[in-house]
């Protein structure tokens, strides 16, 4: 397959900014080549350490030269004198590290892990004096535009939070903490991934798979066969803890004993043996607390919220408590109704945690006359993508097309698309990695940056869109659950914010420099469109008879959106409260978990004593949501207050309304709200 030079649309002008490595070195080590899209198929774990070592050396040398230049008292400082060189110098490192970081999430293996961990530490030890250079710019005279001011302000805050104002023993200790946290968060993620992979439950008796949908039996038989021939009707069948397997299994398995075993395995992931995250959690919390105090804050939540819309922990708690007060009674009533329904339909005794998904699904079937598996045949991935692209064309006047030429990808299932504006001009691109691969790919769904927009560097946005949905089975395409379709819309909202940005500076374009508790607004904006009648007609088509989702069934789907809404709200609030309390309290994490569970759990359904969910809470201990998980709920009232949400309620949109919607989207991207 051709390398990046075959890409049909250049991401650069003729002027390219690469590392100082000679072209010959780039041929030997593809990680050094930032002249186009990453050469994913050629990059190996052994390229990481020497490649990043070379780039770091170049960056440090360039920083020293810039520091000397900026120290000239006669130099007239301006944005182009300070920020443009910083963008040029930092680009090779940002480019190559984003490749390594991405591969570590989607193509994980032991050699890459080791290289990633080693270079992550080296990266953190590298020159962090960028904030000092922005300080010089702040002291100089001259006007800055809105995004420039935002970059300057946020860079100075980030510099302060990176310890740039510290010296002596405090500086040394602070740097040690940064390195320790880097290792601990990586260890946390690896333990969760390995613990998830380690569990499986093989079934051979057809009685044990009674009630399971055919699509799940296909997946479980494929899991057991390990790329060999399999028979979904005869088995064997393997249950795993990755989402496309465990979610439908818990909803449809009639074997209560098996449900209990799988549930207990899930809530105790990474909580024992060599993969135990219990100590890792306490170490992370202790170091974050110490780090915060060195910076002059009372706790880590104050540090985290300093750069967010909420600003202070008390504002987050106000939101959480307000929503809890309005939701808990509803959740209690929902559970009582579920207990009554289960009892009336043959369940004996008290409902346990492993019964909730099963009986909730039965109750929803009873109330709305459908279940997730009834919808799945209507959502083949190719049809969903066509409908999603049609919607974005309608909303924003863009075109999305498969790339005309080959690019290098990290897995054969990955696809690459180009985004064109209304005049047919290429403005962005994205990779789509849709299917679950539990052996090498972390769970969940996310969007991250492959390349950002920079008018100075002449680069265009390129995104990674990663999901973990049900893969194709034999002669069937990937048939998605409604939740998987919703997740794709959600991540595509993040991707659109990245790709449709109008901000010319890399440090503020797309998702860069947006407050963490604001980033969920575009994703939820796109989610809402899935429940528009016209959208559903575009994204649904039965894979056998090509019928769209019947309108009467879609009406049931829309009504079912509120099913057990109070219970779902309380679950999210419990996660948000747990996150905040873990980052403000000094009590042991298990004590904090139990205290929050007592307050937010349903009276009739306390969590199991052995529940160790925090040991797999990757959002806050292995991702970017520490003291920020509330962001999902923070975005909802903000979305409700925006005019975009008002537009979403209309089935027909005038050209004026469309222009207004696009203008508001650009306004969000410009971050001038």
UniProtKB/TrEMBL annotation:
Oligopeptidase A N-terminal domain sequence ranges: 53-170
Classification via InterPro entries: M3A_DCP (IPR034005), MetalloPept_cat_dom_sf (IPR024079), Neurolysin/TOP_dom2 (IPR024077), OpdA_N (IPR045666), Pept_M3A_M3B (IPR045090), Pept_M3A_M3B_dom (IPR001567)
Entry's Gene Ontology BP terms: peptide metabolic process; proteolysis
Range of residues in the leader sequence: none
Reaction catalysed by this enzyme: Hydrolysis of oligopeptides, with broad specificity. Gly or Ala commonly occur as P1 or P1' residues, but more distant residues are also important, as is shown by the fact that Z-Gly-Pro-Gly-|-Gly-Pro-Ala is cleaved, but not Z-(Gly)(5)
Cofactor: Zn(2+)
Gene Ontology annotations for the cellular component aspect, listed alphabetically: cytosol
Highest rank taxon of the organism: Eukaryota
EC identifiers of the protein: 3.4.24.70
A Pfam family reported for this protein in Swiss-Prot or TrEMBL: TOP_N
Keywords: Hydrolase, Metal-binding, Metalloprotease, Protease, Zinc
Free-text comment on the cofactor: Binds 1 zinc ion.
One GO MF term: metal ion binding
All copies of domain Peptidase M3A/M3B catalytic, residue ranges: 249-636
Coiled-coil region(s): none
Family annotation (PANTHER family): LD37516P (PTHR11804:SF83), PROTEASE M3 THIMET OLIGOPEPTIDASE-RELATED (PTHR11804)
Family: Belongs to the peptidase M3 family.
Name of the protein: oligopeptidase A
Phylogenetic lineage: Eukaryota, Metazoa, Echinodermata, Eleutherozoa, Echinozoa
